[in-house]
Amino acid sequence: MEQGRKPAPFVSGCNESGTCQNSLGGARGLIARMEDLLEEEGLAGRIAELLPQPGLARHAFRAAVAECPNACSQPQIKDFGVIQESLPGKSGAECTKCGLCVKACREKGIILDGTGPSINFELCARCGACVRACPTGTLRPEKKGFSILVGGRLGRHPRLAVRALEMTDEEGVLLALRTAARAYIREGRPGERFGDLADRLGIGPIKEEIAAAVKTRDFNFQLNKSGGK
Ligand code: SF4
Ligand code: SF4
Ligand code: SF4
Fold this sequence. Notes:
alpha/beta, Sulfite Reductase Hemoprotein, domain 1, Alpha-Beta Plaits, 2 domains, binds iron/sulfur cluster
């Protein structure tokens, strides 16, 4: 029975123990900032106003942060998902052709030739395993960041979240979250959860507005209504 549980905004993480060797840096601080932001925006109150009946747990706004692309916190099925990623690159350090990077890559995204490693970025999942495996520093993290997914859900009509933004920084995550929360607060209709709003307005416009807000670093950005109503 769903009744009796408070439909509060909720941000889950992974790597509770802090010991996962796949972690690309830890996200406890980011999660705390995301929770503060949702509280500041008054999202829980707005969700409560829109509920068809009190306490429907499925109407909670769900967000999740994963500290690597293994995505144990399941950001793909959340209203708002964050995945920490690390794109590998090459330094000038000499490659000894040890092959450890090739073994470390589960995507078969690295080949070795006479000049050293070549990375196939079409296959790369940005997990950073090859960088961790490389003993010489030939491979290094070229860029680290957070990719953002929106509109995932389970329930009666399940749907995987759609990538809205690639490799942004922590401030970018917060801007994107604020944009998504404000869209829901302003546009949400009674009985509608964030995924339903994404259906009605279209994921495309929401993605565009998140990208625009992050690009302009505008904390007061508002989703335009042209896609809905
Ligand atoms: S998502 Fe990655 S960092 Fe987080 S617990 Fe899973 S494997 Fe570890
Ligand atoms: S980052 Fe991960 S997926 Fe990409 S090349 Fe390195 S090991 Fe392979
Ligand atoms: S792990 Fe490093 S040193 Fe070994 S083959 Fe790969 S790039 Fe070269």
